[in-house]
């Protein structure tokens, strides 16, 4: 039985960028999400203010930050290839009292996937919400960062969405 190898290690188990030069250019997409849990007082204050703080419009700023981060993922993650993204969409939705879901969808025509760009976009959008709300409380929690789907490469992946309690 052959042991699976990590893709970013060379034959001598040293770190190496994956050579994607021989791969076909295809449409590649990925979607990631992050969850934010706000303390009840912060959720109420944010809702009452129309999602604004002294720093400005929270969700709009987080969307801009998430897109910027997705576009610059290769500058943050050492072995990510620089990609000229075709599309990046950030959605932010409140889910009940104090729960926020950030979703990032990314698309590109390239030889490599965009999972890291989607994950980075979702994470930075969530961190931006934290930054803009931290004056209200440091009890804000960010978690549940995960890849939800990817398509266009050798493997397609789709995570089943968790059902929300009514």
Offer a quick outline of the entry:
With 166 residues, the protein is an alpha+beta fold. The protein contains 4 helices and 7 strands, in the order βαββααββαββ. It has helices at residues 40-48, 58-71, 73-76, 115-133; strands at 26-37, 52-53, 56-57, 87-94, 99-110, 141-151, 157-158.
Number of helical elements: 4
What is the CATH topology descriptor? Alpha-Beta Plaits
- By CATH reckoning, the class would read Alpha Beta
What is the CA-atom radius of gyration, in angstroms? 18 Å
Number of domains: 1
Share of helix, binned: 25-40%
Write up what this structure looks like:
By secondary structure, this protein is an alpha+beta fold. The chain has one domain (26-153): 2-Layer Sandwich (Alpha-Beta Plaits), CATH 3.30.70.640. It contains four helices and seven strands; from the N terminus they run βαββααββαββ. The chain has helices at 40-48, 58-71, 73-76, 115-133; strands at 26-37, 52-53, 56-57, 87-94, 99-110, 141-151, 157-158. Helix 2 packs antiparallel against helix 4 (115-133). It is elongated and about 55 Å long. The mean pLDDT is 90.
């Amino acid at each position: 039985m052959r042991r699976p190898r990590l893709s970013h290690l060379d034959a001598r188990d040293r770190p190496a960028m994956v050579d994607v030069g021989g791969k076909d250019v295809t449409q590649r997409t990925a979607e990631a999400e992050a969850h934010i849990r706000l303390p009840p007082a912060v959720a109420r204050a944010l809702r009452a203010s129309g999602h604004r703080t002294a720093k400005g419009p929270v969700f709009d700023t987080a969307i801009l930050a998430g897109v910027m981060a997705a576009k610059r993922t290769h500058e943050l993650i050492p072995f990510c290839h620089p990609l000229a993204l075709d599309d990046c969409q950030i959605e932010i939705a409140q889910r009940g009292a104090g729960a926020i879901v950030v979703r990032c969808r990314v698309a590109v025509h390239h030889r490599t996937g965009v999972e890291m760009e989607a994950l980075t976009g979702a994470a930075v959008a969530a961190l931006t919400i934290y930054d803009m709300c931290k004056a209200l409380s440091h009890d804000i929690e960010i978690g549940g960062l995960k890849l939800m789907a990817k398509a266009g490469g050798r493997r397609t992946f789709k995570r089943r969405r968790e059902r929300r309690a009514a």
